[in-house]
Each structure stands twice: as structure tokens, then as C-alpha cells.
């Protein structure tokens, strides 16, 4: 997505359409049901929702280009995380109980990002440039925090004694939520202040020839970003009903709902990461990809935990044995991929194969 030139009409139209749809649904008290008219509503909702998410990420990119790296990547990640928390909380805490949705979505994000997105970015970059460089120091910080967060939120709940797995007791969940927030906060301080140079590749930052955005365009992007995020949050309830109906109608396994939520929120950011890889800025791709995983665990789990506690809902976090094996494999593979600071197409292909295995096992466990 380009951040230069005139503002794309779609980035203005879709937030407006989303607000209009929210107003119509609210005024008419529309309640989605699986029917012919419901199918039309679902199609309209998905088109508007996807368009609005893309618009939100576009405006986040405009602002990110203005403020530079790594703050720009951080802003993109936080914008997507707001959408993710809204969708997960709405579906999980809705009328139909889905206590494992947060786990399924977080696990799906880790697999999509660390295997699917990272693999495709490395593979595409390797095809065009043979090898690409990443900063080992920054990748190590990403992976150390990510591995710790993923283990204490997705694996450890299976082995605690206070409550039978795969759930934490209220005290344990509160402690883990505080720890993940603390880890993520210190990571952000490290990324943006203490060791900013660990995350900024040679292609990042402003050159002397870069042109700053006019204040009016900057203000427009800020306003439309906030409007788009608000619209997505307000449409999350209807989206949850459509997802539930679709999963029930197709007979898909419950974990597919988490994958759909993850795909929706990651699609625009994935486009930005792929564009960066094609432009030989793999470091930005990795910042976007691994940053998404960290933000998902560091912000989503505590937010959903608070909602579950307030509304007295059970939160299932522990993965089964199959998911744990895939998670450990992802950890080991990521360390090998980023350990030398240079990547090639074979690293990318291996990550893509692991992601294909994850998708296959969803339907043929």
C-alpha cells in the first residue's frame, strides 16, 4: 500500500460505509439469522469489514511513514491488535460459549505469522535477491519474549495443579496476565528507546529527500483511523454471529473460527509485510510479523482475561499435544532461520510447509 500521493477513495469510503451499516443495524434492531436475507447481509458485512480493516491499516501506514521506524511498525501492530481484541472478546463472550477461542486465535496468529507470513516473505525475498539480511540482535529479542509468552499462556496451563488443565485458576490467570503485560511493555521500551537500532534496517527511516505529509492529510488519516477502528469494534458482534453460523453450516472444527479471526486481522498487515520483502526490506517484514505475535499475546490475553473474569466466563488456554508439538517446532525453526542473520528460499519453504501442516491438521487431526 502506498502512503504517498492522494488518499485512496476506498480508505475514506469503507469507514463511512461501516458507520452507516452500524447505524442501520442499530436503528432497525437487525438480528442476523441463517437465511437468504441473512446470507446477503453476511456478504455485505464481510466486504465492508474487510475494506474497513484495510482502510484502518492504510491510515496507520500513513501515520507510520510520518513518524518513522520502529514507531511506525509499532503503530501498525497496535491498530491491528485493537481490532483483534474486539473480535475475540465479542465472539468468546457472546451468547454461544467459546471458551477456547482466545487460545485458538492466539495459536493461529503465531502459526500464520511465524510460519505462513514469515515463510512467504523469506521465500519471495529469496527468489528476487537470493539472500536477505535481518538483524540478529532484534530477532533474538523478538523470539526470546515470544517463546516465553507463548509457553506460559499456551503450554503451561496444561501442567498446573491448582486447577485441572487446560485452564488457569483466577489467581494464576491474573499473575500470568500481569507478567505478559510487563514483558511486552519492557520489550516496547527496548524496541523504541533503549535499543532502537536493533530493529531498524538499512532501508528504514527518512532520507533527506523524504517529503513530510501536509498537516491536513495527517489529521485526516488520524481521524479516519480512529473512525475505522471504532466501526470494526461496533460490527464485531454481527461478525461473530456470521462466523458461528458459517462454522455450524459447514461442519468445520471449532478452531476454524479462531483461524478466520486471525486471517481477518492479519491480512492487511500481511500485505504490508510482503511489500516490504519485495522491496528488499526484510527487516520491516520481520518487525511486522513477529511484532504481531507479541502484541497478540501481550495485549490480547490480558484483555480477554479481564473480560472473562468480569463476566464469569471460563478461559481455556492450554494447547493439546498436537498443537504443542507444532509450537515447539516453530520455536526451533525460527531460531535456526534468524540465527545467522541471512535468509534464503529454503528457510522460507520450510516455514511454509509447517504452516501447511497446521492447516491440514485442523481438518484431518
From TrEMBL:
Keyword Transmembrane: yes
UniProt subcellular location: Membrane
Pfam families per UniProt: Na_Ca_ex (PF01699)
Gene Ontology terms: cellular component: plasma membrane
InterPro entries: Alkaline_pH_Ca-Antiporter, NaCa_Exmemb
Membrane topology summary: Multi-pass membrane protein
Transmembrane feature ranges: 12-30, 36-59, 71-94, 106-127, 139-161, 167-189, 218-236, 256-276, 288-311, 317-338, 345-364
Keyword terms: Membrane, Transmembrane, Transmembrane helix
Sequence ranges assigned to domain Sodium/calcium exchanger membrane region in this UniProt record: 39-192, 221-363
Gene Ontology MF terms in the entry: potassium:proton antiporter activity; sodium:proton antiporter activity
Domain of life: Bacteria
Principal location class: membrane
Nucleotide-binding found in the keyword field: no
Protein name, as recorded: Ionic transporter y4hA
Organism: Bradyrhizobium oligotrophicum S58
Organism ancestry: Bacteria, Pseudomonadati, Pseudomonadota, Alphaproteobacteria, Hyphomicrobiales
Amino acid at each position: 500500500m502506498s502512503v504517498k500521493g492522494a488518499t485512496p477513495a476506498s480508505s475514506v469510503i469503507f469507514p463511512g460505509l461501516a458507520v452507516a451499516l452500524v447505524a442501520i443495524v442499530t436503528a432497525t434492531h437487525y438480528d442476523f439469522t441463517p437465511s437468504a436475507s441473512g446470507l446477503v447481509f453476511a456478504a455485505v458485512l464481510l466486504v465492508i469489514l474487510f475494506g474497513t480493516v484495510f482502510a484502518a491499516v492504510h491510515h496507520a501506514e500513513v501515520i507510520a511513514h510520518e513518524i518513522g521506524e520502529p514507531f511506525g511498525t509499532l503503530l501498525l501492530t497496535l491498530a491491528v491488535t485493537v481490532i483483534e481484541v474486539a473480535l475475540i472478546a465479542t465472539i468468546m463472550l457472546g451468547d454461544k460459549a467459546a471458551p477456547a477461542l482466545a487460545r485458538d486465535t492466539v495459536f493461529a496468529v503465531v502459526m500464520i505469522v511465524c510460519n505462513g507470513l514469515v515463510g512467504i516473505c523469506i521465500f519471495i525475498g529469496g527468489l528476487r535477491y537470493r539472500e536477505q539480511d535481518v538483524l540478529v540482535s532484534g530477532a533474538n529479542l523478538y523470539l526470546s519474549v515470544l517463546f516465553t509468552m507463548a509457553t506460559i499462556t499456551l503450554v503451561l496451563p496444561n501442567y498446573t495443579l491448582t486447577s485441572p488443565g487446560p485452564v488457569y485458576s483466577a489467581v494464576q490467570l491474573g499473575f500470568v496476565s500481569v507478567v505478559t503485560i510487563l514483558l511486552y511493555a519492557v520489550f516496547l521500551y527496548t524496541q523504541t528507546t533503549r535499543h532502537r537500532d536493533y530493529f531498524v534496517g538499512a532501508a528504514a527511516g527518512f532520507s533527506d529527500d523524504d517529503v513530510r505529509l501536509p498537516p491536513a492529510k495527517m489529521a485526516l488519516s488520524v481521524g479516519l483511523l480512529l473512525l475505522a477502528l471504532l466501526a470494526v469494534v461496533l460490527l464485531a458482534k454481527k461478525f461473530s454471529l456470521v462466523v458461528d453460523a458459517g462454522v455450524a453450516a459447514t461442519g468445520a472444527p471449532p478452531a476454524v473460527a479462531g483461524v478466520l479471526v486471525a486471517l481477518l486481522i492479519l491480512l492487511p498487515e500481511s500485505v504490508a509485510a510482503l511489500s516490504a520483502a519485495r522491496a528488499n526490506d526484510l527487516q520491516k517484514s520481520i518487525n511486522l510479523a513477529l511484532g504481531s505475535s507479541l502484541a497478540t499475546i501481550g495485549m490480547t490475553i490480558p484483555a480477554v482475561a479481564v473480560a472473562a473474569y468480569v463476566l464469569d466466563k471460563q478461559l481455556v488456554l492450554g494447547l493439546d499435544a498436537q498443537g504443542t508439538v507444532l509450537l515447539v517446532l516453530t520455536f526451533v525453526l525460527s531460531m535456526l532461520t534468524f540465527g545467522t542473520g541471512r535468509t534464503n528460499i529454503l528457510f522460507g519453504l520450510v516455514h511454509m510447509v509447517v504452516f501447511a501442516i497446521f492447516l491440514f491438521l485442523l481438518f484431518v487431526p
